[in-house]
Automatic annotation (TrEMBL):
Protein name stated in the entry: Nitroreductase A
InterPro entries the record matches: Nitroreductase, Nitroreductase-like, Nitroreductase/BluB
PANTHER family the UniProt entry points to: NAD(P)H NITROREDUCTASE RV3131-RELATED (PTHR23026:SF123), NADPH NITROREDUCTASE (PTHR23026)
Domain of life: Bacteria
The organism of origin for this protein: Clostridium magnum DSM 2767
Residue ranges of the TM segments: none
Residues covered by the Nitroreductase domain: 10-170
Single GO MF descriptor: oxidoreductase activity
CDD domains recorded: PnbA_NfnB-like
Annotated Pfam families: Nitroreductase (PF00881)
Signal peptide span: none
Length: 189
């Protein structure tokens, strides 16, 4: 496979919501997480922790739990109300039927943990794209992946907070590059 350069990788990476059944090896997962940890961090604290879920039934159960929770509490999440019809659709998977999740947590004792872990998540997403894998940040899962029961199950220490729930898998279809609005650039008068 021809290697992409960084600009190509950034310019073409999309949020992917359709995956093949192909499993991602532990070797690939470890490589992606290692690339994630190359991100810069405030005071070099490297305040991250990762949960990897590769069990499709577990992911499906987590999706159902997320849908049930959000539908019950939708008034608390005005920015998600536009997705009510998705959440009520029995076929809708919050994780887009991915067979793998990489969930990034940050150590709250480090002031910059949200920025640091977001940079790590960005590295993972771009590296995944470079390796022919698709990813998607799953904001829907913000509550369930940060719930005490979930963190206890996956041995996430109490002082770690969720930053990025991410679905990942081999892409089913090729996607067009993203189209963006003109950026606001605040030049000096
Ligand atoms: C913080 C954040 C939360 C997101 N949450 C979801 C989500 O819950 N489900 C989903 O399908 N996409 C989610 N996305 C993906 C966005 O919808 C996507 O980035 C946007 O539509 C632009 O598309 P592109 O990434 O393919 O260019 C999220 C992205 C970000 C950065």
């Amino acid at each position: 496979m021809l290697k992409m350069n960084v600009k190509e990788c950034i310019s073409n990476k999309r949020s992917v919501r359709a995956y093949t059944e192909q499993e991602i090896s532990d070797e690939v997962i470890n490589e992606l997480i290692n690339l994630g940890t190359k991100a810069s961090t405030g005071s070099n604290h490297q305040p991250w922790g990762f949960v990897v879920i590769k069990n499709k039934d577990e992911i499906q159960a987590l999706s159902e739990e997320t849908k049930t929770y959000l539908l019950k509490n939708l008034e608390q999440y005005p920015y998600l109300q536009q997705y009510k019809s998705w959440l009520t659709n029995p076929k809708f998977s919050v994780f887009n039927h991915a067979n793998c999740l990489i969930i990034v947590y940050g150590d709250t004792s480090s002031h910059w943990y949200v920025y640091d872990c977001t940079l790590a998540a960005g590295n993972i997403m771009l590296s995944a794209h470079d390796m022919g894998l698709g990813t998607c940040w799953i904001g829907f899962a913000e509550h369930v992946c940060n719930a005490p029961e979930f963190k206890e199950k996956y041995n996430v220490p109490e002082n770690f907070e969720l930053v990025c729930p991410m679905s990942i898998g081999y892409m089913k279809t090729k996607m067009y590059p993203p189209v963006r609005k003109e950026p606001n650039i605040f030049w000096c008068r």
